Amino acid sequence: MKRIAVYCGSNKGVRPEYGAAAQALGALLAREKIELVYGGGSVGLMGIVADAALAHGGHVIGVIPQKLHIREIIHHGLPDLRVVNTMHERKALMAELADGFIALPGGYGTFEEFFEVLAWSQLGWHPKPFGLLNAAGFYTPLLQFLNHTRDEGFIRPQHRELVLEADSAEKLLQQLKTFRPPGEVKWQK
Q1: What is the CATH number for 158?
Q2: Number of domains, the chain
Q3: Model pTM score
Q4: Residue 152, CA distances (Å) to 105, 148, 149, 163, 186 in order
Q5: Within a domain: residue 76?
Q6: Which residue, 3, 43, 65, 137, is most buried by CB atoms nearer than 10 A?
Q7: Closest to 182 in 3D by CA, of 166, 168, 163
């Protein structure tokens, strides 16, 4: 695994465990010589994960749309900042660059990115692993909801297994490294 895209909040959240998880993930990726691909910001969990990777000698690629490049506080310490025209281009480039995906706690943008790459996986458009870093139980309600959608017949059991989950960066990274996609895609007979 050469690169992992990390989706996370531009806010820090209310629990210190969220920032600690972001810091641990950034440091771990650097130690494992896995490049970080992320949204290019210097604020919130985005800034924490990037700073940790950089502080531990990691390579960080930021991908930011032009509109946010003007308004948002971009990370000026990145060795590789790519400015694109739209959010769609940002998400497509991040997905293209990455060999796997991790979501830290976040809000609407994090959820949207999470569900998009998850749907692409379900459709068989990529075989890349995806995991939720469940810091302080942040994603537990979402995981319960995903189980509910499986139980109600809206997600096949093998597609529910596409979502990996752990409460530590080390455990989650190990799961991503050993992930094997299911043989069945959504519209396959």
Answers
A1: 3.40.50.450
A2: 1
A3: 0.94
A4: 26, 6, 5, 17, 16
A5: yes
A6: 65
A7: 163
